[in-house]
Specification:
The protein is α+β, with helices and mostly antiparallel strands. It contains 3 helices and 2 strands; from the N terminus they run ααββα. The chain has a two-stranded antiparallel ribbon with strand order 1-2.
């Protein structure tokens, strides 16, 4: 699905964002990242996940997400429990 929209973002390496920065070949130095974000001329497309959450039902965007092995198993179990709770609440 292509939305046909574009939204420029600047990524600054801080904490968990470093994996995405490395993967995109961006500078790990914060000052260099800010300079590039403010004056860079290159762009590239990224896959994103759109989701709605919260009471306000606003659309939110996930740019990078991963859960492997143990966290993935917990996420899968949570999803199963959440779906079961929804079924019980709808009866």
């Amino acid at each position: 699905y292509r939305s046909g929209h574009s939204c420029p973002i600047g990524i600054v390496p801080a904490g968990t964002g470093n994996n995405l920065v490395r993967g995109l070949g961006l500078p790990l130095d914060v000052d260099a990242a800010f300079r590039l974000a403010l004056s860079g001329t290159e762009s590239r497309e990224l896959d994103v996940i759109l989701y709605r959450a919260g009471e306000d039902d606003r659309v939110r965007v996930i740019i990078q997400s991963a859960a492997l092995v143990f966290p993935a198993e917990i996420a899968a179990q949570y999803d199963r429990l959440r779906r079961q709770a929804w079924l019980w609440q709808s009866l």
